[in-house]
From TrEMBL:
Domain S1 motif: 623-691
Biological role: Involved in mRNA degradation. Catalyzes the phosphorolysis of single-stranded polyribonucleotides processively in the 3'- to 5'-direction.
GO molecular function: 3'-5'-RNA exonuclease activity; magnesium ion binding; polyribonucleotide nucleotidyltransferase activity; RNA binding
GO CC list: cytosol
Annotated protein name in UniProt: Polyribonucleotide nucleotidyltransferase
InterPro entries found in the cross-reference section: ExoRNase_PH_dom1 (IPR001247), ExoRNase_PH_dom2 (IPR015847), ExoRNase_PH_dom2_sf (IPR036345), KH_dom (IPR004087), KH_dom_type_1 (IPR004088), KH_dom_type_1_sf (IPR036612), NA-bd_OB-fold (IPR012340), PNPase (IPR012162)
Annotated coiled-coil segments of the chain: none
Binding site for Mg(2+): 486, 492
Keywords from the UniProt entry: Cytoplasm, Magnesium, Metal-binding, Nucleotidyltransferase, RNA-binding, Transferase
Length: 698
């Protein structure tokens, strides 16, 4: 049965069509926001997947190039692997949705969002987020929703609800907040040093708007929602828990997990696991869920000790940060390097500088962004956690962590005019035990300063965790969570910023939302921690950006020319500019506005190329003195080249004070000569003289 619903949201109409398409999916909705159209579907398998101990949820965000009137580039001419934006959008949808499915649900679930048309005034990512929640809520898939998402921008200090693409790209805030009917469940933000109080205000403005969307979804569910289907529970039998506690008493489990050495803890759990496998060797049913039972026993033990006794596994106080260390210049010959260590988490970051021609080109749905000047890449090799596994390239987690650190540092980067370089930072994870993305932010900041990138402010990041009890006021917020506290806790609340304010937030939780008190406490804790990290640790390694770039980094000089002269500098089919590059071994980038960047490693050659470009782009004036090379000799005079494609003629009478019969009597091909401009001749050509050059200029 086809039904259509509409809602006024952020000054535009959101229209939802149910029953019009995709009738065989468990749940489907065709959404239009303005003229942006997204098809959202939710499907689930009939039976649980065998042999797994996790919920197999897949979230897809498909960017169809026809949605913006483009044909995909490349030979294949069809959409290929997901873009970075598609991966990040999928993660933003996944994070609030996943906690709302039953913990013991093992059926495969896929949430698919296909972008079919894009209106620049209505961002498709937001429509897909709402669509996923709606399609799942009206389906027969078990789901404790609905949830809703709102995006907030800020231009000239004013909040903008669900901003246009241009407002999103150019504003001071990019905030996405997901909520249930009672609590905030996910936060993702990039910000231009927004104060903490302003950020909290923005978060709860989104939360209030989300309630309107949730009411809308609930209304649709009440009319056409399907009854949720029964499923085969994969919960661990209570009898198994009881038997495990007889063999491994709670006191023994506490002793096994409460140590500051990750490897020791893992060995203790391996020994306990071996004992239990031997004890239950003849019970195949229990053996099948034993690993999950041990995980839950370990989790309950850690949570109880933190919540009731305020005792952390490594013995730290609730607000205490692990031991910190930082250093720069540990890798020779690279353009900039730094290492940041927090407990058993260690990141080495390497920065590379390149000319602007090396920017990353982006072929996506956002017409405003076609290239990226700053790139942050994050790698997480298996050896960082003591495992052996072949590298298959970056996965969604690596892409997400790299994007978070990139977003954290973007607000403090210098403009292209201030620093005409393409910048790439690569974070290599040497060791991991919690919050490597925040360590990446710290290491990257120091590496940028070591490379001579004149960033405006120092940036640091830290993550807070959470353990909750039975009531909203029974909770403990943990500063600087390690891996175990992340695995067994309820929250990973990452915040980066400067002394002035927040530059990025990423919040993941495993429960059905956070109270405002928890959000405010986490933001406050992260501010205290990041100020300590910057003032007491990072600044001891490097306090400010270096004044010049590294000796191995390319040097870049800039000049501006009349845009109408760009064609002269480039020359026919690029002949002129390629000749300059061949002579000087530099790279040259010219913008449409006439800004010229000259990049090389030899300062003399850079200056030579710069002078040639100035000559080509200038209009010769009477009295101007130039130096060039004799390239052609005629009966009536000589032609002198001052730059590729730029020549002037010296009449035979202007070569010397004495009368000569032949030009060859004084000049030969290849001679370097200094001339003075005499102005234009009767035919409008520029004439030069050698004999009239002042004595002091010869």
């Amino acid at each position: 049965m086809y039904k259509s619903y509409s809602l006024e949201l952020g000054g535009r109409t959101l229209t939802v069509d149910i029953g019009r398409v995709c009738a065989q999916a468990n749940g489907a909705a065709l959404l239009k926001y303005g003229e942006t159209t997204v098809l959202s579907t939710a499907t689930a398998s009939d039976k649980p997947r065998d042999g797994i101990d996790f919920f197999p949820l897949s979230v897809e965000y498909e960017e169809k190039m026809y949605s913006v009137g483009k044909i995909p580039g490349g030979f294949n001419k069809r959409e290929g692997k997901a873009s970075e934006n598609a991966v990040l959008t999928s993660r933003v949808i996944d994070r609030p949705m996943r906690p709302l499915f039953p913990k013991d649900y093992r059926n495969d679930v896929t949430l698919n969002n296909m972008v079919m048309s894009v209106d620049p005034e209505c961002r498709p990512e937001l429509v897909a987020m709402i669509g996923s929640a709606l399609a799942t809520s009206i389906s027969d898939i078990p789901f404790a929703g609905p949830c809703a998402m709102t995006q907030l921008g800020m231009v000239d200090g004013e909040f903008i609800v669900n901003p246009s693409q241009e407002q999103w790209d150019n504003g001071d805030l990019k905030l996405t907040v997901a909520s249930t009917s009672k609590k905030v469940i996910m936060i993702e933000a990039g910000a231009n040093e927004i104060p903490e109080e302003k950020m909290i205000e923005a978060i709860y403005k989104c939360h209030d708007i989300n309630q309107k969307v949730i009411e809308f979804i609930n209304m649709i569910v009440s009319e056409i929602g399907k009854e949720k289907h029964e499923y085969e529970s994969c919960a661990v039998p209570e009898e198994l828990f009881a038997k495990i506690k007889e063999i491994v008493p709670p006191a023994e489990m506490e002793e096994a997990v409460f140590t500051d050495e990750k490897q020791v803890r893992e060995e203790n759990i391996k020994e306990i696991t071996a004992r239990l496998e031997e004890a239950f060797a003849e019970n195949e049913e229990w053996l099948a869920v034993l690993s999950e039972a041990i995980y839950q026993y370990e989790k309950k033990t850690v949570r109880k000790m933190i919540l009731k006794d305020h005792k952390r596994p490594d013995g730290r106080a609730i607000e205490q940060i692990r031991p910190l260390a930082s250093e720069v210049d540990l890798i020779p010959r690279v353009h900039g390097s730094a290492m940041f260590t927090r407990g058993q988490t260690q990141i080495c970051d390497v920065v590379t500088l390149a000319p602007l021609s090396e920017v990353q080109k982006i072929d996506g749905l956002d017409a405003n962004i076609t290239s990226k000047r700053y790139m942050h890449h994050y790698n997480f090799p298996a050896y960082s956690v003591g495992e052996t596994k072949v590298s298959r390239g970056p996965g969604r987690r690596e892409i997400g962590h790299g994007a978070l650190a990139e977003r954290a540092l973007l607000p403090v980067l210098p403009s292209v005019e201030e620093f005409p370089y393409t910048i790439r930072a690569v974070s290599e994870t040497f060791e991991s035990n919690g919050s490597t993305s925040m360590a990446s932010t710290c290491a990257s900041c120091m590496a940028l300063m070591a490379a001579g990138v004149p960033i405006k402010s120092m940036v640091a990041g830290i993550s807070c965790g959470l353990v909750t009890g039975e009531t909203d006021d029974d909770f403990v917020v943990l500063t600087d969570i390690q891996g175990l506290e992340d695995f067994f806790g309820d929250m990973d609340f990452k915040v980066t910023g400067t002394h002035s304010g927040i530059t990025a937030i990423q919040m993941d939780i495993k429960i059905h939302g956070l109270t405002r008190e928890i959000v405010e406490q986490a933001i406050s804790r992260t501010r205290e921690a990041r100020l300590y990290i910057m003032d007491e640790v990072m600044s001891k390694a490097i306090a400010e950006p270096r004044k010049t770039v590294n000796e191995y980094a390319p040097k870049i000089e800039q000049i501006s020319i009349d845009p109408s002269k760009i064609g002269d500098v480039v020359g026919p089919k690029g002949k002129t500019i390629n000749e300059i590059i061949a002579r000087t071994d530099v790279k040259i980038d010219i913008s449409e506005e006439g800004n010229v960047s000259i990049c090389g490693t030899d300062g003399v050659m850079i200056n030579y190329a710069m002078e040639m470009i100035r000559i080509i782009a200038s209009d010769f004036t009477k009295g101007q003195i130039l130096t060039g090379k004799v390239t052609s000799i005629k009966e009536f005079g000589a032609f002198v080249e001052f730059a590729p494609g730029k020549e002037g003629m010296v009449h035979i009478s202007k070569i010397t004070d004495k009368r000569i019969n032949h030009v060859e009597d004084v000049l030969t091909l290849g001679d370097e000569v200094t001339v003075i401009c005499l102005g234009k001749d009767k035919m409008g050509r520029i004439s030069f003289s050698i004999k009239d050059v002042p004595e002091e200029e010869r």
